[in-house]
Structures are given as C-alpha cells and as structure tokens.
Amino acid sequence: MKQKSIKLLDTVALREDLPGQKVRAGEVGTVVEILADKVFEVEFCDESGQTYAELALSQHQIIPLHNQGKPFKMEMART
User: Fold this and answer.
1) Which residue range is the domain that position 39 belongs to?
2) pLDDT tens digits for 20-64?
3) What is the pTM of this model?
4) I need a surface site. Which of 39, 42, 59, 64 has the fewest CB within 10 A?
C-alpha cells in the first residue's frame, strides 16, 4: 500500500524508538516544517502543550495518521 504524502501540519506517529532523543515508537507529533524532499521537522508535545522534542525526521521514520481535519462520526447500528 502506498504511503500517503505528508504535508505541513499533518499529525504523524513515530515508527521507531529514538533513545538518544528520548522519544519512542508510537509517539504522536505534528509536522511543523518541510525541510527537504521527504524530510520533516516534527514537534512532539505533552498533554499541557509543552514541546518536549522537535526533530528532523525522514519519511521512513514517521507515518501519517488518518482522519486528519475530518470530524469523527460514530454511527449507531439500527435494529
């Protein structure tokens, strides 16, 4: 399956642990800058909105998350 292109302000998840940077696979961040072809500055924030890491990451290190900018709808099954 082809990976969706990553754009500015997309929400992404980290694919791998980066122990030297104190971030782990699965952490969610926001693309805050496009540095080069397939290289992105990603900001990681805690629950209070404080940045704890801002890293230059290549496209193979992150995965875009679904439903960006689209409201979540839950439909109830009708019986």
Assistant:
1) 11-64
2) 998 999 999 999 999 999 999 999 999 999 999 999 999 999 999
3) 0.79
4) 39
